[in-house]
Amino acid sequence: ICEVDSSRDSESEESEEESPADTSTIGIFSRRFQLSVPKLTSRRRVVQELLSDLLRVSHSLFSDSFFPVLEPVIGVGSACEGWSPHKEEDVVYCMFVPLKPPHGYAFHLEPDTMQEMPQSMRVRVELVCTCTREQPDQKMLCFLHHSQEELQRNQVASLLHTLCTGPYLDGEKIALWFQTFVISAWSVVPQSRHYSMRVIPSSRSCKMKLMRASGRSFFVELVFSVQQGDSDIFLSSQPAEALLPPSTTWLESCAVAEAKFFKHVSMQAPAHSCHLKCLRLCARLLEGSGLPIYALKTTVMHLLTSIPLSEWQHKYLLMRVDDIMCYLRCCLEEKRLRHFFFGNEDMPKEISLPPAFQGAQPLNLFQYLAKDPVAQTKALGEFDKL
């Protein structure tokens, strides 16, 4: 999932911007808005190699423990999708770290009825008997059937007593545990010979700044997640901006499904598709307008399933940008923008969604405008200035 192939896009951008077409309107836009981000792919590989090495160290340290099992990372967000709206020095490479229960435990996802936020859930941790494992010669204590004295004598710490609050997985405790691990393990990973690393304080994720001797640096954020069944929908430890739910509240995230969608489009689109460049250009145009970048991303995903991919060749870039801006304008007028992953009949079959998503009524991302006419008028005014 994290191998979103934007290399063709980057290569085509470099060749296009060095051609005589630089004098065209498209060339002017490309230079003015710095649309080419050729280092996204190479730096993403560096990040993935680093995290792969870190997880290898974690498995060797925690294989016989009762800490969560860390699965291979999944690249999410604009930098891993190949279109980051930010300048090169401000790009953050976001990675989901899926958590699986260790031996002797099970995770159960349940709605968080204490919260008013939609799609908020909790991860209940339950003990599972390990007395009848397939490998009876392996010495593993069972939290259900061994005495407290025996557990304490062997200094075995329960997951419920370390990274949970009550019976629920705690995002803040997991973040602190992993940050401590990263600091202690950094010196043994190969990347430590080429980069210095600083952990940036974060309550529910692990943020790192990697710096080379030359002074160049970039940022990585690890977000802890729990998969919903076998679907591409995960629960995320990192709350949305301006939201600070309890540390045992995990929010449903479509970030993995979005990354998978862009990978699907990349594989199906023409070699010189402009859809990523359209995203970058429109994000730059909307900068300062107050319109959420996620609304832009949702708009482009809808148009990628309604406009044939053959019509996204580079020569159609300005036409597609016009389509995107017109679509957004109509949505603002109607105070309605459908969430891409709820009740969408045009969803590619490669995307795996929970049954509740498939049959749900589409969520309206502009519901807040429908409730606040003043906010809608302001949004339309700012948009029209563009």
Report what the structure shows.
The chain is an alpha+beta fold. The chain is 39% helix and 16% strand. It has helices at 7-17, 25-32, 39-62, 77-81, 148-153, 159-162, 171-185, 255-268, 275-285, 293-306, 317-334, 355-358, 367-371, 373-385; strands at residues 69-70, 74-76, 92-100, 105-111, 120-127, 164-165, 168-169, 196-200, 205-211, 217-227, 234-236, 250-253. Strand 4 and strand 5 (120-127) form a beta hairpin. The protein is globular, with a radius of gyration of 23 Å.
Kindly list the characteristics that best describe this protein:
single chain; Beta Polymerase, domain 2; two-stranded antiparallel ribbon; globular; disordered N terminus
Strand and helix layout:
Blueprint: H1 7-17, H2 25-32, H3 39-62, E1 69-70, E2 74-76, H4 77-81, E3 92-100, E4 105-111, E5 120-127, H5 148-153, H6 159-162, E6 164-165, E7 168-169, H7 171-185, E8 196-200, E9 205-211, E10 217-227, E11 234-236, E12 250-253, H8 255-268, H9 275-285, H10 293-306, H11 317-334, H12 355-358, H13 367-371, H14 373-385
Parallel strand pairs: 3-10
Antiparallel strand pairs: 1-3, 2-3, 4-5, 5-12, 6-7, 8-9, 9-10, 10-11, 11-12
Helix pairs in contact: 9-10, 9-11, 10-11
